[in-house]
Each structure stands twice: as structure tokens, then as C-alpha cells.
Specification:
The structure is a single chain. It contains eight helices and no strands. With about 200 residues, it is an all-alpha fold. The chain has one domain: CDP-alcohol phosphotransferase transmembrane (TM) domain (Four Helix Bundle (Hemerythrin (Met), subunit A), Up-down Bundle).
């Protein structure tokens, strides 16, 4: 819901940083992998009860995720790069609630499981729509620069990172944030299924 606004606001900054990467011959895939490695550092930070440090890694992951897409568009976007980006993104997203669950299983495990299940709903509806949209040669007018059909919703990347930030700032409220966001993810999944059925009806 907020992704397009964030992309518009950060476009100038991303282009400036990307120009510096291009000068050093750093590829989009290098940035994608670096972002994933940095983001996964949030998991051990959460295990060590350092949620604010985990938040730093989460924010850096998102910055690098913005850079890799901008870098790809300024050079030559590839299908393999788009594939790598989305796979590593979903692995990173699920690692954050997993970290909270492992850090405090008694208090957080059930809420984390519910949230990860909700992520499966948003993820599979998102990717299934993209697959059929590509088959039908459909394109997104909201996100024309994405490497595949980017289907929006209530819980996009920006909303997810906001919730992760709240979890890291107030970890004792993790379960409340997790259940609340899982509910929003469920609504997003239902809306995407409805939209997909309407869009793909012969």
C-alpha cells in the first residue's frame, strides 16, 4: 500500500548511491546477495537479545534491496536477478519472526508461526498471480519497472518493515504486533485471491 510512495520519495537518493556502485563495477546481484547476508544478521542479533541491533540490519537490508533494483534498471535487468531478489526477500522476511520465536519460544513461538503462515498466504498469492500474469503478458501500471507483475495490497514491503521496526523497539509486544499483522496479511491474501479470480476468468 505504501511501497509506491516510498519509491517515489527515495528515487533521487537511490540513483545517487547507485551511480557510486556503477563506478565501482558492482552488479545488482552482488548487492542482492550482500543485502540478504546483512538482513540475515538480524536473526543472531535477536537470539542475543539485541533487537535494536537487529533493526539496524533490517533497515540496511531494505536499503540494499532498493539499490539492487535501481542498479538493475540502470544497467540490464535480468530474469535471474529478479528471481534471486524475490527468493531472498521472502527468506529474509520469514527469518525475523523466526528470530523472535527462537529468542523466546514460550512467549513468541505461536505468534511467530501464525505470522509466518500468513506470509505464506501473501507470498503464494503474490507469486501465483505474477506467474499467470506473465503467461497472459499482463503488466502492472502501478509498478511498471518491476521484473514481474507486482501485485500490491495492504501488506507490502514497507508495511512489513514498519511492523518489524515496532517489534524490535518494543519486543515485549511482539505477539500483539505479529497477530495484528497476520490479520492484515490474511485480508491481503483474500483480496488478492478475489482479484486473481476476477482477472483470470475466461
Amino acid at each position: 500500500m505504501l511501497d509506491r510512495k516510498v519509491l517515489d520519495k527515495t528515487r533521487t537518493l537511490l540513483h545517487t548511491l547507485t551511480s557510486a556502485l556503477l563506478a565501482r563495477k558492482i552488479s545488482a546481484n552482488h548487492v542482492t546477495i550482500a543485502g540478504f547476508v546483512v538482513g540475515m544478521c538480524a536473526l543472531p542479533a535477536l537470539l542475543l537479545d539485541l533487537p535494536l541491533l537487529a533493526l539496524v540490519f533490517i533497515i540496511l537490508n531494505r536499503l540494499l534491496d532498493g539499490l539492487d533494483g535501481t542498479l538493475a534498471r540502470m544497467t540490464t535487468p535480468t530474469d535471474s536477478g529478479g528471481f534471486l531478489d524475490i527468493v531472498l526477500d521472502f527468506l529474509f522476511y520469514s527469518s525475523v519472526p523466526l528470530g523472535f520465536a527462537l529468542a523466546n519460544p514460550e512467549q513468541n513461538a505461536l505468534a511467530a508461526a501464525v505470522l509466518i503462515y500468513a506470509f505464506i498466504g501473501t507470498g503464494c498469492s503474490f507469486l501465483a498471480f505474477a506467474v499467470i500474469a506473465a503467461k497472459r503478458e499482463m503488466s502492472s501500471t502501478d509498478y511498471p519497472n518491476k521484473s514481474f507483475y507486482y501485485l500490491g495490497g495492504l501488506t507490502e514491503a514497507t508495511e512489513t518493515i514498519i511492523v518489524f521496526a515496532l517489534m524490535c523497539i518494543w519486543p515485549e509486544w511482539f505477539s500483539v504486533f505479529a497477530y495484528g499483522f497476520a490479520a492484515l496479511c490474511a485480508i491481503t491474501t483474500v483480496l488478492r485471491i478475489r482479484f486473481g479470480m476476477e482477472s483470470f476468468t475466461e
